[in-house]
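Kindly go through the following sequence and its backbone structure tokens. Advise at your convenience whether the structure tokens fit the sequence:

___
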Amino acid sequence: TLDVKEDVLYTGAVLAKDKSWGVLALDLPSGAWRKVVETDFRVGHFQANPVRSGVVMFCWETGGDAPQRTWTVNADGSGLRPVYKETYDEWVTHEAWWGPGRIVFTVWPYDEEHTRKPHGIFSADFATGAHTVHTQYKAWHTHGSPDGQWIVGDDFDRNLWLVKASTSERRLLTQGHLGKDCTTHPHASFTPDSKSVVFGSSKNGTDDIFL
């Protein structure tokens, strides 16, 4: 992920096999690498803050449900901490920045019991972790509009849902994006003007990017 000043690239690395991992920073003008922080869990899904330089969000990567999914660290190695501190049985995934001080993510109800508990599209204050449940359904990927008014989420049937942040009203935006022999993830993102979403689709039998 690229820092907002576009002079540093953040990524992860295995420091010792099955033992330690690290967040690394690459200074683009000089080509010099440095270690930001070392962890005892596999790291992934790096996202630099879209407004504030030197702030990185990343995840405890397991390929499934992590005990604590969302993490942050500053570029100087300070401030390593969870962002949204999840309960032991929440399956948190697909976090994304929603402006400089908030994140949006999904809590997947992985069995029938968890459909009766808070799930769906959440957002959380980056500083405190205090969260809001915006809509409850079996959400997969999610993203918030830059103007703060909308959230988009998909589901496993490749439908796209639009959520009004102020009221939690949810409506179907578009459907039918699962094509034959294709497994494209919609994984929608808002355009910078908050007026459109870009997403993956296999509606036409190929893996395409739609607007």
